[in-house]
Structures are given as C-alpha cells and as structure tokens.
Write a structure and sequence with these properties.
With 201 residues, the chain is α/β, with parallel strands linked by helices. The protein has one domain. It has helices spanning 15-23, 80-92, 98-109, 116-130, 175-178, 186-193; strands at residues 4-8, 26-30, 43-48, 51-56, 59-60, 73-74, 138-139. Helix 3 runs antiparallel to helix 4 (116-130). It is globular.
Length: 201
C-alpha cells in the first residue's frame, strides 16, 4: 500500500477511483472545496444498448455558483431517483450479478439524503465492501491547495480529462455492440463481475 491520497467526492465513480483507494493506506475525501459542475461529483456513466449514458444527480447551487461542496443539497423535485434506477435496471438487469447487488444501491439512492456528500459517502462505503477493499475514507477538515501534496487525485479523475489508468477488460452486457468500454461507473464492474470485481482494479 502507498500513503495518503486525496479524492473528490463522487457519485458511483469509475474503476480508476477505486483502484487508487485500493493502493492507498489512507483516503481523504475532499469536503471543503467549492463545488465543481459537470464532474463525477454528481455524475456517473453507464453502458446501454445505445451507448454510454450519463446519470446526473440534480443539486441546488448557491448564489454565483460558489457553494461549498459540503453544503450542496440534492434536488428531489426532479424525480431523478426513478430515472436513475430505471436506467440501471434497463442497462443491467441481464448482467450476471444485478439481482445480488441492485437492492444495495437502490436502498441508498431512495434514502433521500439531504446532502450530496452524505449520499456519495454511503454509496462509496457499500461499494468498497463489495469490492473487499478495507480502507475507510474520511473527510478533509481543511482545503489544501491543488497539487501541493503527493497523491492528489481530486481534479485528475474527471470525465473531461483523458485517463492514463489502464483497466483490465471484463465481459460487459453490450460487448457485442460496443466492444469493451472503460471508465464506466463502478456499478458496471460490480454487476458484471460480482465477487471478482475487486480483482479487476
């Protein structure tokens, strides 16, 4: 195991996020930053018959969009929970391990957390259990400037940036249509590989 790493909070993030945690001795989830839009903080990507699709958790933003991440509240007026759960069911109900793990994620998504940070942390904790990764992430208590310390992945794991992480291939539901697609939500790996998912990080 390596030392301490810093990660942004993320909604069912890609395999790279968990691979970094697996290698770490200590994991700090950023809670003191200003919220960044169009990132994994409230977005994940899944694979459907029609190709890659992103699911976004709607949130309330403060004045001038300078809200601290820890104060970001989830907007439940958009009925996003039904949309996300329906999309996950449509995309993965034929995957080998969907029936074993879907309820775990469903219960958390339906729990009506007030804050994005809290929902993401609960989803992260359950995902780590499934992946058999024993590291317990904790929140930061102060904001450390970007790249001022080693192991800072807060802004490197980003859907708008090309990833250098090379993911081992595994059988995905729509391989026959799209080939292997990396950088999907960890939920893709879990539903397709089940107990073996952690070995693919």
């Amino acid at each position: 195991m390596s030392g301490k790493i810093f990660l942004s909070t993320a909604y069912l993030p890609p395999a790279e996020y968990f691979a970094r945690i697996k290698e770490a001795g200590e994991v700090l989830i950023e809670s003191e930053e200003i919220y960044h839009k169009q990132s994994y903080r409230n977005r994940c990507y899944i694979m459907t018959a029609g190709g890659s699709q992103y699911l976004t958790v709607p949130v309330y933003l403060g004045s001038l969009h300078k809200t601290h991440l820890k104060d970001i509240r989830i907007d439940y007026s958009k009925r996003w929970q039904n949309v996300h759960l329906g999309a996950l069911t449509s995309a993965y109900n034929s995957s080998p391990f969907f029936i074993y793990y879907f309820e775990v994620f469903e219960k958390i998504i339906l729990r009506n957390h007030q804050y994005l940070l809290d929902m993401n942390m609960e989803l992260l904790s359950e995902s780590l259990k499934i992946l058999k990764i024993e590291v317990q992430p904790v929140y930061t208590t102060e904001f450390i400037p970007v790249n001022s310390t080693e192991g800072d992945y807060r802004y490197k794991i980003n859907p708008k940036k090309e990833s250098l992480y090379v993911q081992r291939e595994y059988c995905q539901v729509f391989n026959y249509l799209h080939g292997f697609v990396p950088q999907l939500s960890i939920i893709d790996l879990i539903f397709n590989m089940g107990p073996e998912a952690g070995n693919y990080l």
